[in-house]
Design brief:
about 25% strand; Spermidine Synthase, Chain: A, domain 2; four-stranded antiparallel β-sheet; 2 domains; Rossmann fold; single chain; about 300 residues; alpha/beta; seven-stranded mixed β-sheet
Length: about 300
């Protein structure tokens, strides 16, 4: 039996994870990054960008559901949504389950990732790219946000880790631009906020930077298998908070809206994921800088090449 290729991936400078690859389905390069699709025994198809795992077929809902539903269930009537990044289409798939959503602007830097995902990952995006409510903008996400004030009910950012092209979308000034993009004070912003286990400094920096802009920042915590660690997703607003509604009200809203086939999200699980362990509070009580345009680099490392 031929020896299988092993993908090793760093989570920080001292630890990481691995999985085996059965075969490479595609390997190429876009104008912005290397792209590879592999078939694995554990995860099914896995998309890697610049050799870093982005999304896997198996249990992708562990990430995509908490990135979308808590915010959309909290907003009283989400009509206009902006999705930044997320070229695989998993976020779009979940957003489009809401009958109130009339228009989705999809701002993605790399058009080739969308073309690739449309062709090779239809099981993940579920045909979301063909929905007439979706309007594509292949450009820098920050520039798009800054040129669209007073537009959106919900903004969801599904970006790579904060280094390279993504790092200017994690600054205080960018979050201020997101806030200005809300149509009404009830606007709500969602982003992943790194792992309090493997990247506690980055996690603390993102939380403090969000809190410097928004009145309310509520973080949900959950294990995500394809990232091999305990993860965080932060939901920011001046007026809305996912746990402001009791579980039974959230469940009633899921039923009324006809949202089906959820694997993770219920009223109870939203409340459960928002509970902050004491050690997380200890992390957040430590000094951590607010990330700004003048100083956009995080204190810890992200790139595998830096390790």
């Amino acid at each position: 039996m031929a020896e299988k290729r092993i993908v090793h991936e760093w989570l920080n400078t001292t630890s990481g994870f691995f999985y085996t690859v059965d075969r490479t389905l595609y390997k190429g390069k876009t104008p912005f990054q290397e792209i590879e699709l592999v078939e694995t025994g554990e995860f099914g198809k896995v998309l890697l960008l610049d050799k870093i795992t982005q999304v896997a077929e198996k249990n992708d809902w562990q990430y995509h559901e908490p990135m979308t539903h808590p915010a959309l269930l909290t907003h009283p009537h989400p009509r206009i949504v902006l999705v930044i990044g997320g070229g695989d289409g998993g976020i779009l798939r979940e957003v489009l389950k809401y009958p109130s959503v009339e228009w989705v602007d999809f701002a993605e830097l790399d058009e080739e990732v969308v073309k690739f995902s449309r062709t090779y990952l239809p099981s993940l995006n579920g045909g979301a790219f063909e929905d007439p409510r979706v309007h594509f903008h292949f450009q820098d996400g920050r520039a798009f946000v800054e040129s669209h004030p007073a537009m959106y009910d919900v903004v969801i950012m599904d970006m790579t880790d904060p280094f390279g092209p993504s790092k200017m979308l994690y600054t205080q000034e960018f979050f201020q631009a997101v806030k200005k993009s809300f149509r009404e004070p009830q606007g709500i912003f969602v982003m992943h906020s790194e792992s309090p286990i493997t990247r506690p400094t980055a996690f603390a920096c993102i939380r403090k930077t969000l809190q410097s802009v928004f009145s309310s920042v509520e973080t949900l915590y959950t294990f995500i298998q394809m990232y091999a660690t305990f993860w965080s997703i932060s939901i920011a607003s001046d007026t809305l908070k996912p746990t402001s509604n009791p579980p039974e009200v959230i469940d009633g809203r899921i039923s009324t809206l006809g949202i089906r086939n959820l694997h993770l999200i219920t009223g109870k699980t939203i409340h459960a994921m928002s509970v902050e362990y004491p050690y997380i509070r200890e992390i957040l009580d430590r000094p951590a800088p607010v990330i700004t345009d003048a100083r956009p680099d995080f204190p810890d490392l992200f790139s595998q090449q830096e390790v």
